[in-house]
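Sequence of DUF1093 domain-containing protein (Enterococcus thailandicus).
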Amino acid sequence: MKKIFITLTLALASLFVMSGCQFYDRELKKEVYYTKITTTPEKQTDKEGSSYFEYNQVFVNKNGEKIDLEMKEYRNKPLKKDAYLKAKVTKSDGVKSWEEVEKSKVPDKALDTIEKNEP
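Predicted 3D structure, token representation.
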């Protein structure tokens, strides 16, 4: 009886740890990606009357791997054209935060991929 209890406890603990790891990977783990703003989208307004700009961007990590993401920016002016962004991205929510960076701060593999994908 004691062995069964220990086995069940270990199995439940393992499931708990595995689900916690999956939650972390999907919801909390932020990976760094880079992109270049190449378009100036039209200003849009949501239901509440707030202005935003919607970007469909190719984001590239330091290894040159690409992902396509949609990014809504609630602001009065669009992002600067030809600006390079460093973004923190989660699998579940996409872009969580970003900052503008100099071209020289973008890793070489990422920069090569970004420049090959420019319109």
